[in-house]
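Membrane protein (Streptomyces katrae), 495 aa
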Amino acid sequence: MTQVHEDRPPVLPTQQDEVAAAGSELIGGPAGRHFRPGGHWLAPVRVVVLVALGMFALGMVQKLPCYDWAWFQGAGSQYTHACYSDIPHLYSARGFADGLVPYRDRFPDLAVDPKYGGMQYLEYPVLTGAFMEVASWLTPSSGAIQHREQMYWMVNAGMLMACAAVIAVCVTRTHRRRPWDALLLALAPAFALNATINWDLPAVALAAAAMLMWSRGRPLLSGVLIGLATAAKLYPVLLLGVLFVLCWRAGKWRAFGAALGGAVVSWLVVNLPVMLYAWDGWKRFYVFSQERPIDFGSIWLLISQRTGNPLEGANTYATGLTLLLCLGIGLLALTAPRRPRFAQLAFLVVAAFILANKVYSPQYVLWLVPLAALARPRWRDFLIWQAGELVYFLGIWLYLAYTTSGDKHQGLPLEGYQLAIAVHLLATLYLCAVVVRDILLPERDVVRRDGSDDPSGGVLDGAEDVFVLGDKAKAPRYAAPPEGQRVAWGTDPRD
């Protein structure tokens, strides 16, 4: 396969993407032929990080009504202002305000203290629990509880902002010749709005770092980071499945073994002490995930509400659908004309996990945004998907406002919320569809138009296939342009 030399200049989206070109008019228009990216202090990684932090700050400003008063004035106001966050509420409801030790100390029963909601132990993975605990150490331990909850959210917001910066750096550097694609992440409105709802960004940052290390040919360190990410949220373990299929097709078993070994060891290093020290508390996350009924945002909730069937076997249905979708993605990877890119399969597998899950919390979109920026760096498709996620972001809060407003009926009724769920599902499926199309028709993949194979593939980049199902893999139908020649978005009839 044709590989692109590293000394070629970075790809400029304003010269390949009509939406990026139109949007650039706000800051002076598309880059001209004499523009030299990276030759001054406005290097891509600096711009992307600054933009990402600016958007993160705007997301914090959006939570201002709740920070000032709505979190503490009953449920309704934080929903009508769409500024809800789990962080201040769980400061008290999970024992951090009382100095309880996560996983070791059992919460009082509901009859004794209703603020704990009947939960026995902290229902988060170990590394996320550690993140929450460290934030509580940095929060004042005296004073009014309202002020302490505000400070706890602020401390967490600062720590989560650092995670956002790490994500921005990793996404910018993963595709060496396409650093500006990371602006999709930096400017994603759904990322900014959901960043401080819960503690998802530590896992997202570790997963992004793992993909960066894999792209640099360091499978062992990539595996270590995947293991740590899985110790913070469950979804990053899916990256190992993606690497298994890709390494199977390319015959890169040594690299996969290094990644798998690193992931297992790092996960055990973090989890084993808590497993031995506080088994009941450690297993609560996994038991809760298994026993949790269908909940907001899921396709199962939509089916249940529309049919009147409680779907008591939803756990089996969700697991079965997830496995079926992953099997289909695996077959796609082994039968595609060219081996799919790592980011493409990672996006599809995580999207499948989200679509088939029993619950879809609005912050789950954070898992997909970095993967989407790498898998399908096209502004039109990305913004269509983001619009669907914004509809759901407003829909869930307005529906909760409706259910908590009593006879006032402020907010969105059930039918409107069901429509918001459908929009979210369809928008995600749309982005999945165009990624699948890129895999089946690799000449349509904008990342490969300069002759690249898989910039995020590490040892897989340019590797020959040793196992392909069906017909022999086809040769790429889009050759690299001559040295120094750029591909403009208006010159390719396949665009």
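The chain has one domain: 40-460. The chain has 21 helices and no strands. ok done for today
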